[in-house]
Design brief:
about 200 residues; alpha+beta; OB fold (Dihydrolipoamide Acetyltransferase, E2P); 2 domains; 5-stranded mixed β-barrel; two-stranded antiparallel ribbon; 4 helices
Length: about 200
């Protein structure tokens, strides 16, 4: 296998994975298979803190060795290397050095973009985004008298569900609109919405 073949293969793999990642994530197209890569980045905990690695302290953390950066490296390493191998008269090791430099630069740009994007997102998160008190939701699993059911609500733009009990022990039917009074030990204590509005007045 010649250098041009190696470069071309790297470009095809890096570019193809980048396109698939974009389609599966940004555009929300569900592929018929799941991509399992030997390296990844992912969110953990409130505020989307990212696994090991290094960005600025106090914000989200992104591993420098992640799928997006690796795909950018492969695509640019392969693309630049293939052009140099087929269109220039440079020595093979010089072309290799230039291709590696181009790949590393592309990976670094992608990495910095990810860090900036994730820190910008985390800076918009407020404590109120994670408070349960005062949330309006809908009963999805009926709450029996002095029993526990489930409610569905919208928090931070995301649909969530949690176990729920009536604040006064009264039953609440499925579909009832409720307001969360407090949240204790993983259980939301709720008022019926229309009753809560009357009390508030």
């Amino acid at each position: 296998m010649s250098w041009s073949d190696i470069y071309l293969l790297c470009f095809i793999v890096g570019f193809s994975l980048s396109v698939l990642s974009f389609l599966a994530g940004a555009v929300h197209i569900h592929l018929p298979f799941k991509m399992h890569l030997p390296f990844h980045f992912g969110s953990h905990g409130q505020g989307g803190a990212i696994a090991k690695g290094g960005s600025s302290g106090g914000g989200a953390h992104v591993s420098w060795f992640n799928a997006s950066s690796a795909m950018a490296f492969l695509a640019w390493f392969g693309g630049v290397g293939y052009i140099l191998a087929t269109r220039s008269t440079l020595e093979a090791f010089i072309a290799l050095a230039i291709a590696i430099s181009a790949g590393l630069l592309a990976a670094f740009v992608v990495f910095k973009f990810m860090v900036k994007l994730m820190n910008a997102e985390s800076s918009h998160l407020k404590e109120e985004d994670y408070r349960y008190e005062g949330l309006v939701g809908t009963v999805t699993i009926p709450i029996r008298a002095n029993g526990t059911g489930e409610i569905l609500f919208l928090q931070g733009g995301v649909r969530r569900s949690t176990g729920a009990r009536s604040h006064d022990g009264q039953p609440l039917e499925k579909g009832a609109e409720v307001v969360t009074e407090r949240y204790e030990n993983g259980i939301a204590y709720v008022h019926r919405y229309d009753e809560f509005i009357k009390l508030d007045k």
